[in-house]
Amino acid sequence: xxxxxxxxxxxxxxxxxxxxxxxxxNWTDVNAxxxxxxxxxxxxxxxxxxxxxxAWLSDEIAWTDHFxxxxxxxxxxxxxxxxxxxxxxxxxxxMITAAKGEMVERGxxxxxxxxxxxxxxxxxxxxxxxxxxxxEWMEGTGLLLYQGQxxxxxxxxxxxxxxxAQEAAKALGAVMQKAGVSFGTLGKDxxxxxxxxxxxxxxxxxxxxxxxxxxxFKKLGVRGIITLSPHAYNAIKNIYPWYGGQFEVLHQTQxxxxxxxxTRLDISKGFNAQxxxxxxxxxxxxxxEYEASRAILRALPGLTLIExxxxxxxxxxxxxxxxxxxIDFLGGSADSPARRRVREAYETGADVLAxxxxxxxxxxxxxxxxxxxxxxxxxKDISEIVAKACGIAS
Amino acid sequence: xxAVYEALVKIVGxxxxxxxxxxxxIYSWDLGTTEPHRPxxxxxxxxxxxxxxxxxxxxxxxxxxxxxxxxxxxxxxxxPFKGGMLLDxxxxxxxxxxxxxxxxxxxxxxxxQGQLTSYLERHYPHLTHSEPGAPPAATIxxxxxxxxxxxxxxxxxxxxxxxxxxxxxxxxxxxCQFGSCxxxxxxxxxxxxxxxxxxxxxxxxxxxxxxxxxxxxxxxKIRGIGQFVVADEELVPEIMYKITHTQxxxxxxxxxxxxxxxxxxxxxxxxxxxxxxxxxxxxxLEIIFDDTLGEYIREGEGGFLGFIRGxxxxxxxxxxxxxxxxGFEYVGSIMPIEKYPACYRRGKEISERHGIxxxxxxxxxxxxxxxxxSWTYAFNRAEPDTIKHARExxxxxxxxxxxxxxxxxxxxxxxxxxxxERLNANTxxxxxxxxxxxxxxGIMNPGNxxxx
Lengths: 394, 452
What we know:
The structure holds two protein chains of two kinds. Chain A is an alpha/beta fold. Chain A has 17 helices and eight strands. In chain A, the strands form two sheets. Chain A has a four-stranded parallel β-sheet, sandwiched between helices. By secondary structure, chain B is α+β, with helices and mostly antiparallel strands. Chain B has four domains: 88 residues, 2-Layer Sandwich (Uridine Diphospho-n-acetylenolpyruvylglucosamine Reductase, domain 2), CATH 3.30.43.10; 127 residues, 2-Layer Sandwich (Uridine Diphospho-n-acetylenolpyruvylglucosamine Reductase, domain 3), CATH 3.30.465.10; 88 residues, ACT domain (Alpha-Beta Plaits); 96 residues, Alpha-Beta Plaits (2-Layer Sandwich), CATH 3.30.70.260. In chain B, 31% of the residues lie in helices and 25% in strands. Chain B is built from 13 helices and 19 strands. An eight-stranded antiparallel β-sheet of chain B has the order 15-12-14-13-17-18-16-19. In chain B, strands 5-6-10-8-9 form a five-stranded antiparallel β-sheet. At the A-B interface, helix 2 and helix 3 of A face helix 2, helix 4 and strand 16 of B.
């Protein structure tokens, strides 16, 4: 594709590379872009990617593995879009996604990305694990399959397959069960939500995944969906409607907040800890939901909420978005965003780093180990914290 | 096997050196109109000692070294004209010390303006530094190295006048300190030791600044911007003189621009005022806008547009989007304030000749001893003809600065040549000797200040 044929060919040159995209709102440092924080080369900033994309489409540079690494290391965290002061800022992340899409179209993608996408096509999850194993996390939980209940509990790939994230999936299920929420899961019939596929620019595969999911939801008569993951929340709430999928979509934090507000949960056992909260990108910057999690945490007896300096729309991404939780282009260094983030959490003096996303949970828990903070900082999903406050054993 | 690459990997680690086409492409470009030139390596050191080793390597291999801060001078000052190693210094981003009593901040060379502003707001809200109009990614060290000015220029002068100490890796690799720090005292003063001010305004040709101690100033609880407008550019100098006489303004900037059209040909003055109480604020507003500028309002020559609380973060990068083109560059000058009307009129003519909406700005420096006057030319990065016009306009403006009796601020290569053509011959000769002494292999940012 030539620059003239690129959807953003008449806009992409408008990036001045002024550097706002690297900052959080309060200007603490220039490490709010996770890939730039990791590598600290201009190429890995949003502006660098836009200039490189334009150069590639204008034949000023050739495609290389390194170029693809730069592009796919973008986690789609949206910090750049929120911080860019220029009027075309609404499209800057779309430009990067479209460039990734062009690489996908031409088959010019790194092996990790290829594997990620192939696994979703073949197995319905990025890990390449058997579809039949998807529902195994439910064993012994007493949770029901979806059979026309009020809500479909959509768990997602990470919550279904990752052993640590499964704990969060179980905790949320148990809390909702205790509160009498009418819900069921899809078990082994659940399919990837496709959010990361979309962010990787694989439009064809995303369409296939979205259409399959929408068809299944409609066939089962699903009206409302509760998601464990903000990634699924984003895809089903914001992108599925383009393909005819209109559902009431709630993220787990919105459900838990409502249950606590409506006194449908006995949280009297509380949670005695100092807790700091990490805003997930696909809940915060993508969907402007910053308060539900905080309302939950503030409501729990014994819990003291301490904010990190980078919070809400300034939160540093854990580095897992855009498929990076699997392809791991940002790992392997003390500068990895997840390791930076747990250090920021630890500096607050908190005992617990609360998350509201299974991807953040796994990324940040691994980072705690890498930073040798085990025993000093514990990463917990908000569902696990509420479960404990309700007296539900983990 | 690239031995230089391997040596750099040993110094900074493989994540922080690249000879890949992507990094070489990105670091070949200035954000203004300067033509790109590719470096051979992009390196991002973390410590002064790493920089020292890189400089020693450059000397041994006779490879050019180009230091880069925020990359926002827009004048092509960090373009690797002769290849070599491009040093991206932004990883050196520690705020080492803030001394409340001696009122200074000691920072590494990669600390950005935004980072220091934020740090002071959160930890020392009673102190502030002079923040330039550049985007917050501009670095403290880069700004002082080019004799930048900020929003405290009116009372305190150039940012480079606010230096209390420097650490520099000189071109032969030695680490030198200047100021009280050089004798093991704190970083609280640059004076009164022998003056070895060889590192400011030299565009990195005499060494790499690695640490800077910057003066901090009292930050009042209320800060805001008063706005005043006049139609006659001839009134601007006397207004600036009158406001500076009150000694009540932190910053005085006059600007005029073609966009939006309703402001075209008007001169807008923004006057930063600070106070610790409503009473103090009211008093200052009354002195400045009623007593001092009231006569212009009564005569129908000027208007008070109001006072806005809070200082907006500079968003000068919006200028780049005026032509939906992603580019602008400006010529800055240091000029007597009385030249404002001529600067405005002649700049407007240049802009109109090149089909560029005009944008000019004059910032008062040091109680009106001078002003920084700038002429900005936006261009469309996708339209080479607009870049050509902007470049020509910039060169014409460089000529204009000297014609009007000013000096070019942070001149690019074209402006440097103009300056050197006019420079006192003995001074020029001394510059050559200094460069030869400090940088015998000519490795430091070659292409800049090429004294023949």
